[in-house]
Amino acid sequence: MTDSQFLRVENFDEVSKDLPIDEETADRLARRPWPATPIQPDVEVSFEFFPAATEAGTKSLEACVDQLAPLNPNFVSVTYGAGGSSQDKTLSTLEYITTNTDLSVAGHLTCVGATKAQVHQVIDRYLELGVKRIVALRGDAPADGSTVSGGYETAADLVAAIRERDDDIDISVAAYPEVHPKAASAAADLDNLKRKFDAGADRAITQYFFDTDAFLRFLHQARAAGISQPIVPGLMPVTNFAKVKSFSERCGTIIPDWMPELFAELDEVPEVRHLVAATVAAEQSRRLVEHGVRQLHFYTMNRHELTAATCRILGRKPEADVVDVRDDAKQAG
Fold first, then answer.
1. Pick from 3, 48, 86, 195: most CB atoms within 10 A?
2. By the 8 A CB rule, do 47 and 78 touch?
3. 53 bridge partner residues
4. 3-state SS string over 244-294?
């Protein structure tokens, strides 16, 4: 079966009679291409979380960590606000994960809006927590437009400083399959990525995308430019299409023509939306794997259901039954 062919389930009502899905949604899914090659068993996954701002958000985050930990990700990462605005929350989230799980954790680190001394203070704190992975980013300028002199100006400068500081730190950087919104051109954006690798980055994790062909073209261009390090595709299961569409417009992610039709009116029907979203994410993952990709990074939005469902569809099963790791930690203590 080629990518242009379609899979149709003849007796969909029979096999899915217990699922919250109607004929219209089934027909939408049937019109989407579905690769037939089984997922490979050696595919690694990683997950991104963001610091919670409320008590309810903290509970959701902890549940997300607890439920995804048994999938044995290669690592998980925790985001860091512009100018370090969420620094304390990032540190507390990292501390929660390192204390309550055996997960390998990466802390995000931005350099915009911070002095070199402030950046190194964060690195020191990460190392104190046992965090030996960093996602190094230039970051967005603070919303108030304030600037700080004497800091690292680019992500490549930040990578070089981290590498000089501790050669054992694992460094990830950002990549943009559909070009960074502020880049002068696709070629300039690729040159910037190459500078980050030349400075010592171990891998790149891409901005999320829905056009898989855009990523595959970008990967080919990166290899042609002499970049040999891993470029890990970032995937974001759709928790709310309206919000994803709005955010994508701001960050430069293209919404393919088929997505609005597929998710039309489903934000009011979460059970069906979840099923469709997991199917789309799994389909995208399978196609990437067919083209040789062996690492996938999921932007969880602190919701475990869709990421866990997608991993399950791909054949990624928990190493043990899902348990509350906090209870295990308490018993161990």
1. 48
2. no
3. none
4. HHHHHHHHCCCCCCHHHHHHCCHHHCHHHHHHHHHHHHHHHHHHHHHCCCC
Whether residue 160 contacts residue 194, with contact meaning beta carbons closer than 8 Å, is answered with no
| Paired tokens of 267 | 């934000």
How many whole angstroms separate alpha carbon 230 and alpha carbon 155? 17
Residue ranges of domains in the chain, CATH in brackets: 1-34 (no CATH), 37-141+148-332 (3.20.20.220)
**Cβ-contact 297, 46 below 8 angstroms:** yes
Tokens of 308: 């866990």
Question: What are 49-76's pLDDT values in tens digits?
Answer: 999 989 999 999 999 999 999 999 999 9
d(CA 37, CA 32): 16
Per-position b or e across 68-101, b if 16+ CB within 10 A of its CB: bbbbebbbbbbbbbebbbbbebbbebbbbbbebb
Taking residue 204's Cβ as centre, other Cβ atoms within 10 Å add up to 21
pTM equals 0.83
The set of catalytic residues is 48
| 70-112 confidence digits (pLDDT tens) | 999 999 999 986 555 568 899 999 999 999 999 999 999 999 8
Task: Name beta bridge partners: 76.
Answer: 47, 105
Pick the closest to residue 17 from 6, 26, 8 (CA basis). 26
The SS3 call for residue 304 is helix
